Amino acid sequence: VSRSICDISIYHSENMVNVLKKGTLKNYSTTEKYLKEYLEKELRTSDMYLKNLSYTFIVGFEKFLRRKKDKNGILQLTNNGTMKHLERFKKLLNLAVKLEWMEKNPFRDYKMKFKTFDRAFLNRLELIRLEETILTKPHLERTRDMFLFACYTGLSYVDVKQLSDNHLVKGIDGRDWIHCTREKSQTPMKIPLLYKAKEILDKYNRLDTTSEFLLPICSNQKTNKYLKNIAIACDIHKNLSFHVARHTFATTVTLSNGVPLETVSKLLGHSKLSTTQIYARVVERKIGDDMEMLQQKLG
Description:
Blueprint: H1 5-16, H2 22-41, H3 55-67, H4 79-98, H5 124-132, H6 138-151, H7 157-161, E1 168-170, E2 176-181, E3 188-192, H8 195-203, H9 220-233, H10 243-254, H11 261-268, H12 273-279, H13 284-298
Antiparallel strand pairs: 1-2, 2-3
Helix pairs in contact: 2-4, 3-4, 6-8, 6-9, 6-10, 11-12
């Protein structure tokens, strides 16, 4: 029996519902929606057999995505947005090959073209300014503290939100550690609690006795909104979002202070070292310090 694009989409949806995160499934359904649009608008059909898919089909789908505009005539997708949809389509076809619904994946000769961006992070002076600026509004002070906690632990928004007593343990060194599983990848993380992070935990200890969670963090949307106000108050000219804290931990707090890349990778809960290399760049000051040491060795 010849299987089609719709068949593999339905199979994937039904079998991955308890495997993939809700957000990931939503992304797949968007990709499938765009595939249907491409089939209907460009190829004048509602479906296509998997055995008839070719390299030409993929290139055509890429062009369709790149040209896609919203109701105001503005292009909907960036280059990386387009590549993400193609990546998901490729995974669907890989599944079809495993199921022996098609012989080979036409993506075999197709190269993904992702653009790399410098991820924002706070340098040492900006971090100090953030810590020392007096914020008069309680909700801004609380949001700043949550952000700083992430700067000194490397935890993502969802991991900070879900932090509970169960995650605090005594390490082999007798000090306080955070033992948790990263929500995004389900990778275990073991993070020694730095003094500044411990201070924030103590500050908010049992603030809300009805909650099982340790820190009073509001919704992601509100947090990122408040961070914009905090950046203005602290004279920080960067687009602050909660994820900037994770990058700050990787660069300014750890790598710039000589913590090896392999250790930072473990602290961030990355399964591959290459992921950490994308996140964490060595700041200019660190490069300067390293070259100064080299200069001294060379005499």
